[in-house]
Design a protein that fits this description.
This protein is of the alpha/beta class. The chain has 2 domains: 326 residues, Adenylosuccinate Synthetase, subunit A, domain 3 (Adenylosuccinate Synthetase, Chain A, domain 3); 90 residues, Orthogonal Bundle (Adenylosuccinate Synthetase, subunit A, domain 2), CATH 1.10.300. It is 29% helix and 20% strand. The chain contains 12 helices and 19 strands. A 10-stranded mixed sheet has the order 9-7-5-2-10-1-11-15-18-19, sandwiched between helices. A 3-stranded mixed sheet has the order 14-16-17. It has a two-stranded antiparallel ribbon with strand order 3-4. Helix 3 crosses helix 4 and helix 3 packs parallel to helix 5. It is globular. The mean pLDDT is 95. The structure holds inosinic acid. The site of inosinic acid has 19 residues, from helix 4. Inosinic acid binds next to helix 4.
């Protein structure tokens, strides 16, 4: 365990599996040490359940760091913004005494997700033979609009006439595309609907890159928060069963408008086992009874869609790959406590394909579909870990499990989460 792996003024937090690794909890813990928290990619496809008093709220668009009332939260240029969802969450939080306005900024260079992007997402999934199993939040179509250079940015909405003209072009394009997909073009909606909350944009518009750079120059500390996970990255993940953005740490610089040399450390969030929601291969998937058992123990249901997550053994091939692609300086290991009752635990240490061992994480989903994981079995600890606050409080077999994961990942474990509460964490100096 090496907590210096979290050091420096600017830290990236990145998911190292298929998303849902528990980044929200890790960001929540690390947020106490920083002044600014910025998201760099994704959109309302992400979801964190947060607790405000005795209420549970699921935040998709507003960063969960907003609950730390002295922090500024930013959505960088790489995030796609569903404005209706964003202002709903802002109002919901304000109604519960946490007013985000004045503390939240959305980059003028960020692209907007409109209702027509959601209509296209649904229509494309319906028409597809190989369905991705998207969250239906319009993420893919919004990034397509961006790279197709027909997107609408936050800056466009600061001038109502320019915004309306860009949105009208977007709707005309979406109507054609819906027709091609065999869907009703009217689902693209109207300019009026799309612009319904645009008048609120000036209150939150910000130049995120400039703000982060100025903050760092003034001695502030910054956390750059990734969404989804490495294996869902559009380039480095299990293409085409991926999200439409770069989720990996390199995107943190591009998606917030700072230089890569500004980043000091990269914390990879790794769950003590593996889960996946949506379609695509999961080599270490459990058999059905174990799948159900761990899903219940870990509460593995999507925060955005409620879908059950598929569960499996720890896959060290994915995590070692993520350590390299993200340049991890440390791992935050989450949900160790979910394994507390298991008599034995398996770890996939490698893949075999066509009789050959030592396969690296493959480039294609079809190869990943066919690999056979090579397992090592270790004894469980069958003791609760939820009250552990120091490494020495953990049962010997749990420590041995962590040592093995650290060795296979080639990266020190800098933090261990043993429950959902902020205090249920092991961080040693
Ligand atoms: P999209 O991001 O909605 O386009 O969905 C593409 C793929 O990414 C699907 O397999 C989704 O289930 C998955 N995905 C998107 N966001 C998340 C997330 O926050 N956690 C886990 N999986 C996600």
């Amino acid at each position: 365990m090496n907590t210096s792996a979290l050091g420096g003024a600017c830290t990236v937090v990145v998911g190292c599996q298929w998303g849902d690794e528990g980044k929200g909890k890790v960001v929540d813990v690390l947020a106490s040490d920083v002044d600014l928290i910025a998201r760099y990619q994704g959109g309302a496809n992400a979801g964190h359940t947060v607790h405000v008093g005795d209420q549970h709220i699921v935040l998709h668009q507003v960063p969960s760091g907003i609950l730390h009332r002295d922090k500024r939260c930013l959505l960088g240029n790489g995030v796609v913004i569903d404005l209706a969802q964003f202002f709903d969450e802002v109002d919901h939080l304000a109604g519960r005494g946490v007013n985000p306005l004045g503390r939240i900024g959305v980059c003028t260079r960020a692209h907007v997700v409109f209702p027509y992007h959601m209509a296209l997402d649904h229509a494309a999934e319906k028409a597809a033979t190989a369905k991705i199993g998207t969250t239906g939040r319009g993420i893919g179509p919004a990034y397509e609009s961006k790279t197709g250079r027909r997107g609408v940015r936050i800056a466009d909405l600061l001038d109502t006439r320019r915004g309306e003209a860009r949105v009208a072009q977007g709707i005309a394009w979406a109507r054609d595309r819906l027709r091609q997909l065999g869907a009703d073009p009217a689902l693209a909606g109207t300019v009026g609907d799309a612009m319904a909350v645009a008048h609120r944009v000036p209150a939150v518009a910000a130049d995120v890159g400039t703000e982060i750079s100025a903050g760092l120059a003034a001695g502030k500390r910054v956390l750059l928060e990734g969404a989804q996970g490495t294996a869902l990255d559009v380039d480095h993940g299990t293409y085409p069963f991926v999200t439409s953005s770069n989720t990996t740490a390199g995107a943190a610089a591009v998606g917030t408008g700072i230089g890569p040399t500004t980043i000091d450390s990269v914390v990879g969030v790794v769950k003590a086992y593996t889960t996946r929601v949506g379609n695509g291969p999961l080599p270490t998937a459990f058999d059905p009874p174990m799948d159900e058992r761990v899903r219940q123990l870990g509460g593995e249901f999507g925060a955005t869609t409620g879908r059950p997550r598929r569960c499996g053994w720890f896959d060290a091939v994915v995590v070692a790959y993520a350590a390299r692609v993200n340049g991890l300086t440390g791992i935050a290991l989450t949900k160790l406590d979910v394994l507390d009752t298991l008599p034995e635990i398996r770890i996939a240490t490698g893949y075999r394909l066509g009789g050959r061992g030592g396969m690296p994480f493959p480039a294609t989903a079809s190869e990943l579909e066919r690999v056979e994981p090579v397992y090592e079995t270790v004894p469980g600890w069958q003791t609760p870990t939820t009250e552990a606050r120091r490494l020495r409080d953990l049962p010997r077999n749990a420590r041995a499990y962590l040592d093995r994961l650290e060795e296979l990942a080639g990266t020190p474990i800098a933090m261990i989460s043993v429950g959902t509460r902020r205090s249920q964490v092991i961080r040693e100096p």
